[in-house]
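INFO  loader      accepted 1 record
INFO  loader      residues=98
INFO  predictor   begin
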Amino acid sequence: VVLVTITILTIRTIINRTHFVGILQDLMNNIFNMKNSYERELYNKYNILMSKYPIAISQYESKCWKNGIKTSYEIMESATKIPDSEWEIREREARQNL
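INFO  predictor   done
INFO  writer      dumping tokens
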């Protein structure tokens, strides 16, 4: 029992002195923030597209929902891959059809 207690206290002391828990939390936060930064950047690009080409984007979203793309994330990712020149053409056609 004494040996187990000494072992546990030694491990706990080493963990406290090296700030292992803080380092582990920082590492996890960095990993989480890297993932979130990509999603934030994607969301910002998509908002820029929405402000430039609102009608074309709305039509694109409705087509995607009908064709079986399930998540908004997939729609945003596929919309940002389309070049701006094509969005301009789609927006012009959408405005003419109104």
